[in-house]
Structures are given as C-alpha cells and as structure tokens.
Amino acid sequence: MKAFPQIIVKICPFIALIYSIAVIILTTYINEKLTPVFIFFCVQVYLNWYSVYTISHNATIMEVKTMGKKLLIYNEAEDNVEYKYWYCEKCINYTCKPTQHCVFCRKCFHFRDHHCFFLGACILRQNIGNFILFCFYTSLTCIYSLCTLGPYLYDNINRVIRTDTDSFNIFLNFCFPIALVRLLHSRESTYILLVIMFDILVSILCICLVYATWKLHSCMSGKQRYANISGKQTLREIFGNYGLSNIIFPYNGLIGTRDLNGRYELKQI
C-alpha cells in the first residue's frame, strides 16, 4: 500500500479526537456549565473508544507451531485425524482458525468485521459490543450538543441574515451550502464555523445511530458474519458476561474477560 493512504488512515483518529474535544469545549461554552448527563455521555464515548482500540491492539491469533522443519496446510496427526491450517502470505503465519489480514493494522485477526478509520482499530467479535456502545453514546452526545448549539445558531443567524421565520427558511439557515452563501452575502462570517460543526454533528448522529442499530440487529438476528462464521448472538455474547451492565460502564472492555461459563471466550479467541 502506498504511503499517502497510510498517512490518511493514521491521522483520522487524531482528527476525530480533536473534533470531539472542540465539540465538548463549544458545548460547554455555550451552555455555560458542565452537566452530569453530558459528562456521562462523553466519558462513555472515550471509555468505549479506548476499549475498542486496546482489544484490537492486543488481539492475538492461534498460530501453528513448527512441526519439524515443515508446515503443512493439511496435517495428519498420530490418531489419523486430519487438521486444516490457514496461511497468510503477508504475516507468513499458519493459524488453526480462519483469519483476515488488515493492511492498516498490519496483522491478522480472528472473527474480524472491518477496520474503523476514525477509531484507528479493527472491529472484531471481541469488541463489537464496545463499538456498538461507542456509536450509541456518540449519537446521544451529538443530540445533546445539537440541542445546545441549535438555538444559539438560530438566534444569531436570524439576527445577521434577517430571514422569514417560517419552517422552510429556518431549515435553510442550518443547511451548510445555503447558510454559507447567505452569511458571505451579509459580510458576516463569524458563524460559518458553527454551521459547519452543526452539520457535521447531524451527519455523525445519523451515521452512528443507524450503524449501531444495524450492527446490533445483525448480531442478534444472525446476519453478522466473521470470516465464514455466523449465527445468532445474545446480548451477553455481544456485550460480555456483564451483559447490559456495560451500558453504564464498559466492564468487559476495561477490567473483565468475556468468558460466559466456559462457553464463549470473546476477548481472546
């Protein structure tokens, strides 16, 4: 892979982090205080982000040890049972289970879904619950910030542009291309950045809410696939042995394993 795409992928998490901090500062400045609800949402976003990243970074694969001087894709053991191995040409490793190689993380993963550029980590079966919670709390944080930023923008943009107060014109004032033209025409560019941030927040809200809902539905309905493995998952399988308690605090992603009575080991596969 060329160097330029790799650079873009590496700076995406930093851009997301800087933007999130800017939103927190702006929301706090306009609201003139830090509410417990907003603090809770922000903490949950960062804790689940950290959980997704650390689980992806620490994930290991089941490598096949060298047998003599040769490794075979199919190996016949002493009991005449044939075992199948998988080989990655980029990692130069044989594994006991199917893997997918991530060109951005430069390693193989078991039960990989996709690479999230903004989190800087791969989404796996081990951290899919933290990823869903991250998207969910990001949506709630966006709603809170929009409810704070929206009225502030409405009052100030209407004062600058002096448009009609019907619903359609109010909607146009919050659409970036139209709001940009109107603000430039009025020779007042103070609120252009706020309009951009407002529209980005709306986009993030829609994407995260829809994607989190779809991923949760896919896991519970059996449509979610990891390599050649699929099947319905319960909430305890998705979020770990703490279940819905992870909504309050991501126990499994930070302090606990995901062993469900010896049946499911989601953190280290």
Automatic annotation (TrEMBL):
What would be an example GO MF term here?
A: protein-cysteine S-palmitoyltransferase activity
Palmitoyltransferase DHHC domain: which residues?
86-212
* Subcellular location per the Swiss-Prot or TrEMBL entry: Membrane
Its GO CC terms are:
membrane
Q: What's the top EC group for this one? A: transferase
Report the catalytic activity: L-cysteinyl-[protein] + hexadecanoyl-CoA = S-hexadecanoyl-L-cysteinyl-[protein] + CoA
What keywords appear on the UniProt entry? Acyltransferase, Membrane, Transferase, Transmembrane, Transmembrane helix
Q: Which PROSITE patterns match?
A: DHHC
Its record classes its membrane topology as: Multi-pass membrane protein
Q: Does the keyword Transferase apply?
A: yes
Q: Does the keyword Transmembrane helix apply?
A: yes
Annotated transmembrane regions:
7-30, 36-55, 131-154, 166-184, 191-214
Q: What is its EC number?
A: 2.3.1.225
The record's annotation in PANTHER family points to: PALMITOYLTRANSFERASE ZDHHC16
Which family does the entry's similarity section mention? Belongs to the DHHC palmitoyltransferase family.
Domain notes from UniProt: The DHHC domain is required for palmitoyltransferase activity.
By what name is this protein known? Palmitoyltransferase
Recorded name of the encoding gene: LOC105666911
